[in-house]
TrEMBL record:
Residues 28-132 form the Histidine kinase/HSP90-like ATPase domain. One of its GO terms (molecular function) is protein serine/threonine kinase activity. Keywords: Kinase, Serine/threonine-protein kinase, Transferase. This is Anti-sigma regulatory factor (Ser/Thr protein kinase). It comes from Saccharothrix carnea. Coiled coil: none annotated. PANTHER family: ANTI-SIGMA-F FACTOR RSBW, ANTI-SIGMA-F FACTOR RSBW-RELATED. SUPFAM superfamilies: ATPase domain of HSP90 chaperone/DNA topoisomerase II/histidine kinase (SSF55874). InterPro entries: Anti-sigma-factor_SerPK, HATPase_C_sf, HATPase_dom.
Length: 144
């Protein structure tokens, strides 16, 4: 198991933070702790919504994607929002409400759609990025 690395991505602006997800199993506890620290200026409810979105997108990258994987949080104050982006190295479609992993799976993207102002998938040469934007009321700051 390799360590999770926190990177600051200057190209995405001063408030974008990235975590390299190098483990073979999803490091959800560490990802959630990192995201909670980054989002510490938000209300508890807003943090909880963001953590659910982060958890679902990261879990999907492990269940349906391939390494390398990364999660990014981009904090914006005008209007207040948190953009969660998760990269993986596959070009597979994201399907809402169904899963190839079993009949009791597949509700994660339903939660993401409900909690987010918008979400989508962007395909690129290296794979795909699944992103979601969660609205907030207080201007966040990059805590890292």
């Amino acid at each position: 198991m390799r360590a999770v690395t926190l990177l600051r991505e200057d190209a995405s602006g001063p408030s974008a933070l990235t975590m390299d997800l190098a483990d073979e199993v999803p490091p959800l506890t560490r990802v959630r702790g990192w995201a909670r620290r980054v989002l510490s200026d938000l209300t508890d409810d807003e943090v909880d919504d963001c953590l659910l979105v982060v958890t679902e997108l990261v879990a999907n990258a492990y269940d349906h994607g391939e390494a390398p994987r990364r999660v990014r949080l981009d904090l914006s104050s005008r209007p207040c929002s948190v953009r969660v982006e998760v990269d993986d190295a596959t070009h597979g479609e994201v399907v809402v409400g169904t899963s190839r992993l079993g009949e009791h799976r597949g509700r994660g993207m339903v939660l993401v759609a409900y909690l987010s102002a918008a979400w989508s998938v962007e395909f690129h040469e290296r794979g795909k990025t699944v992103w979601a934007e969660v609205s907030c009321s207080a201007p966040p700051s990059a805590g890292g």
